[in-house]
Amino acid sequence: MQAAYVPSIISIAETLLSELEAIEEQPPQITSDLLIKLHHLFDKNLERALQIIDKGDVKCYVAEKSGRTVYQVKGKTAAEPYTVFPLDYCSCHAFLYDVVGHGGSEQVLCKHQLAARIASALRRCPTIVVPDTALVQLLLTA
Ligand SMILES: [Zn+2]
């Protein structure tokens, strides 16, 4: 007997976020069906991510020559914004504890990564083109 395929929570998250990123209508709109699915998966982090986006606290920096992209997302209390690579990294404590370390509440992404993914998909973050050296400086201070 073959074991039933059970998708991992990470693959479910990627499927839903890919669905979000595939929205082509202008301006982009999240369907209520997709929003409900995202809420089931991300719960309070979705609400927090949407609040971050509504406050305009997500910025996308693109290096002019290399095209490398880094997001800066303001935290609720931190003085400096967090440095975010939406798929792989955030400089916040919750990323280390809950995402990497599977601490108190296992999460696929922290709210800052989620905010960057959603803001990018919905074109709700300004894109700032900077010299490549400026992007390095940004990363060195993360
Ligand atoms: Zn974070």
UniProtKB/TrEMBL annotation:
Domain SWIM-type: 82-121
Gene Ontology MF annotations: zinc ion binding
Protein name per its UniProtKB record: SWIM-type domain-containing protein
GO terms (BP aspect): double-strand break repair via homologous recombination
Any GO CC annotation of this UniProt entry: Shu complex
PROSITE patterns per the UniProt record, alphabetical: ZF_SWIM
Coiled-coil zones: none
Sorted UniProt keywords: Metal-binding, Zinc, Zinc-finger
InterPro entries: Znf_SWIM
Top-rank taxon, per record: Eukaryota
